[in-house]
Amino acid sequence: MGPARSPAAAAAAAVVVVVLVLASVAAADNMVLKVHHRFEGRRERLGDMRSHDARRHGRLLSAVDLPLGGKGAPTDTGLYFAKIGIGTPSKDYYVQVDTGSDIFWVNCIGCDKCPKKSDLGVDLTLYDPKGSSTADLVTCDQDFCTSTYHTLLPGCKPDMLCEYKLSYGDGSTTSGYFVEDNVQLDQVTGNLRASSSNSSVIFGCAAQQSGGLGTSSAALDGILGFGQANSSMLSQLASSGKVKKVFAHCLDSVNGGGIFAIGEVVQPRVNTTPLVPDQAHYNVVMKAVEVGGDYLELPTDIFSSGDGKEAIIDSGTTLTYLPSDVYNPLMEKIMAQQPGLELHTVEEQFSCFQFVGSVDDGFPVVKFHFNGSLALAVYPHDYLFQYRDNIWCVGFMSGEMQSKDGKDITLLGDLVLSNKLVLYDLENQTIGWVDYNCSSNITVKDEESGATYAVGAHDIGSSSKLVSLRISAVLPLLVGVLYTFML
Ligand SMILES: *[C@@H]1O[C@H](CO)[C@@H](O)[C@H](O)[C@H]1NC(C)=O
Ligand SMILES: *[C@@H]1O[C@H](CO)[C@@H](O)[C@H](O)[C@H]1NC(C)=O
Ligand SMILES: *[C@@H]1O[C@H](CO)[C@@H](O)[C@H](O)[C@H]1NC(C)=O
Ligand SMILES: *[C@@H]1O[C@H](CO)[C@@H](O)[C@H](O)[C@H]1NC(C)=O
Q1: Taking a C-beta distance cutoff of 8 angstroms, is the pair 168, 12 a contact?
Q2: Separation between Cα atoms, residue 213 and residue 204, nearest integer Å
């Protein structure tokens, strides 16, 4: 694949670096080695396991309903998360869903600095490979490891674990080793009906955290990367023939939670734009920005493709980051509608103002236009979030996301993606969306029977409003820089 530009990163999502961990493979700590011993002799080649798995579960998963919780605004939980069962016997884990990264990982037993409690209304659980009869460790000579790193790790010997270290845009890191275990997903089997189904998936068992991941009060059990790299859970399910590489989310910023489904969505239909080829994540080409019916006059090459100037779609980021050449005229135009308003900086980060009344009446709709006549209409109640009574802040940020070569990056996060059905069709390499009521149902197709079934919204966890207290906890997660994969 070559050096792939990774997307960015902000609210704890968007992984940026998968670092080779040679030294630590040799120096694996005691816990790792002990765990490993327990599984010796049970190791199989990945290929063998896949075919074994396919035999055992010949049935397609086809359409999967992933129960969702959380709310996107920084004054709410600041993120969306899903519930997923892992292991035998199965335990529930709550993981942030992140289209800006690839790896699925959960906090593991014995983890240094993993959070124990969460303010999000969910119970945290440490995964214990020894406590699951279907767990297997992944060693550095297995296909998954060599293909994730695009090489056989130098110094790899048969019993060494496949370790990883991930760095996020906010500077936090997580490291651990890969394991393979059964993951229970809710297979859609009828209208608003699903039944649990096992799939063997390789994911990270986190042994160490640093930065915001270990301390955030918005703590979860891990992150579920929905990027398109071969290492993602989606790619693994697709390569064992269980699902098509198509998924959709509908993030409900009004009621919390929403819909996250794997499978072909037949209703609602969406207009699409092509994904920029050969990118690790979901990059699209923006063409223009319209504010209240007027197009902004922007430098002609501001969004040119192939130059790292595409927009990245990232459900793991809360806010939207724009190059300053876009941000400045955009803000000017938005504020022109309320000439008396005074902007203040709150929490050293947000541009906020006092406003009484309906923001939808007082501010213009912003439309981002993309290749293929696709527009993203962002309403004032989506790009503005309420900080306190009558204090509103702007969810657009200027020039803080930069690529390695210092170019400003456009990153579209939760706030602007919410209240829309967003469909990622990796089979056709397109992404699309349509305004949608995320508390209602969508219809997905079961590949095996051709039947179509309704999938409804969920809101797991309490996701109570935490108001301004949350801001300081979320803030450190919002600033980031881009890295590229080292290999
Ligand atoms: C990902 O998997 C596909 C199909 O198995 C393979 O053709 C492709 O080369 C892989 N990509 C990378 C970057 O390893
Ligand atoms: C998943 O597999 C385990 C081990 O084979 C089995 O005990 C469990 O009942 C299965 N769960 C489901 C939902 O099929
Ligand atoms: C890909 O595009 C084709 C042709 O437009 C369409 O028939 C097919 O359903 C699309 N694939 C998926 C997975 O939606
Ligand atoms: C959204 O759908 C839900 C469930 O069908 C319904 O109760 C609600 O009124 C809808 N909201 C809007 C704004 O239409």
Answers
A1: yes
A2: 15
Measuring CA to CA, how many Å separate 139 from each of 12, 20, 103, 362? 27, 14, 17, 58
Ligand 3 within 6 A of 307 CB? Answer: no
Q: Please report whether residue 84 resides in a domain.
A: yes
Could you list the residue range(s) of the whole structural domain that residue 349 is in? 29-482
Q: Is the peptide bond before 268 cis (omega within 30 degrees of 0)?
A: yes
State in Å: Cα 441 to ligand 3 middle. 21
DSSP assignment of 30-51 equals HHHHHHHHHTTT----HHHHHH
CATH code for position 313: 2.40.70.10
- Indicate which residue's Cα is closest to atom 4 of ligand 1: 239
Best mutation site among 57, 88, 189, 201 for ligand 2, i.e. most ligand atoms within 8 A of its Cβ?
88
More confident residue, 217 or 298: 298
Q: Which residues line ligand 1 (CB under 6 A)?
A: 1, 147, 230, 239
Q: Indicate if ligand 2 lies below 6 Å from the C-beta of 134.
A: yes
Ordered strands of the 294-295 beta sheet: 294-295, 286-291, 366-370, 374-378
Q: If DSSP codes are grouped into helix, strand and coil, which group holds residue 406?
A: coil
Among residues of the chain, what percentage have pLDDT more than 70?
A: 78
Q: Residue 440 CA: which ligand is closest?
A: 4
**For residue range 43-63, what is the model confidence (pLDDT) as tens digits?**
333 333 333 333 334 457 789
Nearest-atom number in ligand 1 for the CA of 239 is 5
Pocket test for ligand 2, best of 134, 181, 182 (most atoms within 8 A of CB): 182
Q: Is 175 a domain residue? A: yes
Question: Which H or E run contains 434?
Answer: strand 430-435
452, containing H or E segment: strand 452-455
Q: Are strands 350-354 and 283-284 parallel, antiparallel or unpaired?
A: unpaired
Element at 24 (helix H, strand E):
helix 22-26
Pick the ligand that lies closest to the CA of residue 252.
4
Q: Is residue 15 part of a domain?
A: no
C-alpha–C-alpha distance, residues 443 and 138, integer Å: 37
Q: Is residue 318 part of a domain?
A: yes
Q: 343 to each of 78, 201, 336, how far by Cα in Å?
A: 22, 48, 12
Q: Could you give the 3-state DSSP secondary structure of residue 114?
A: coil
Q: What is the pTM of this model?
A: 0.84
Burial bucket for residue 116 (CB in 10 Å: 0-12, 13-18, 19+): exposed
What is the C-alpha separation between 65 and 247, in angstroms, rounded?
10
Which of 141-155, 204-218, 324-338 is least confident? 204-218
Identity of the amino acid at 435: D
Number of structural domains the chain divides into: 1
Q: What is the pLDDT of residues 402-446, one digit of tens each?
A: 666 667 778 898 899 999 999 999 999 999 999 999 999 999 999
Chain-centre distance of CA 278, in angstroms? Answer: 19
